[in-house]
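Re-running Trypsin-co-occurring domain-containing protein to confirm reproducibility after the cluster update. Everything else is unchanged from the original entry.
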Amino acid sequence: MNIKFGLKIAGKTGLPMLAEGSSNADFEVSIKCKFPNQKSNR
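Result of re-run:
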């Protein structure tokens, strides 16, 4: 089973018309799972 999702973070700071700063960050998270085969003892 594979699960994948993304996150986007953005921020802005400063005083309008004087000095502004902004930053963006993108993250992608991927999870891979393997489940063991379960055999019944019958």
